[in-house]
Specification:
Layout: E1 2-3, E2 11-12, H1 24-51, H2 60-69, E3 72-73, H3 74-81, H4 85-97, E4 101-106, E5 109-117, H5 119-139, H6 145-163
Antiparallel strand pairs: 1-2, 3-5, 4-5
């Protein structure tokens, strides 16, 4: 049995505070995610500008989602990104005006619309994503390929856990 991190004499069987938040792993996780997210926000802005100079950084994720999963309803995109209908409508209108997406009737439900990448949108997103993967490959060139795969697996697990 170990004393918890605040030294109040309470003991736990795992060696961490009653809540577990003081465990060194969680402290390191919080610190590293803060750095990663700050860099990701900056990179997202750069990638958005590479797709189109007038593209909002937050819209880049929508384009990637459409590129990977094909046509989707606006409500599905809003749920995935975690925004409301009004925000999604505004972003989709902007993407349509830039010629990156179109809305087409859903063949499965005539009342609904599907958002689809235009060919131009697909070409631009593909170029930027390939360049980004090339940057990752250069920056992680000294990593073992299995470590890269493991990092991707762990990040996927983290993202799934955050959805709950």
């Amino acid at each position: 049995m170990h004393e918890d991190a605040n030294g109040d004499g309470r003991r736990t069987g795992s060696g961490m505070s009653a809540s577990g938040m003081e465990q060194p792993g969680f402290l390191a996780l919080e610190r590293e995610l803060t750095v990663l997210l700050r860099r990701a926000r900056a990179n997202q802005g750069e990638m958005a500008r590479e797709v189109h100079p007038d593209l909002e950084p937050s819209a880049y994720g929508l384009l990637v989602r459409l590129d990977e999963h094909g046509p989707q309803r606006a409500t599905e995109l809003a749920a995935y990104i975690g925004v409301g209908k009004a925000t999604m409508s505004r972003q989709l209108r902007a993407l349509e005006e830039l010629g990156l997406v179109v809305r087409e009737p859903d063949p499965a439900d005539g009342r609904a619309w599907l958002v689809t990448l235009t060919q131009e949108g697909h070409d631009r997103v593909s170029r930027v994503r390939e360049a980004r993967r090339a940057r990752y490959a250069r920056r992680l060139a000294d990593w073992d390929p299995h470590e890269v795969t493991e990092l991707a697996r762990l990040l996927h697990q983290l993202n799934r856990g955050m959805e709950k």
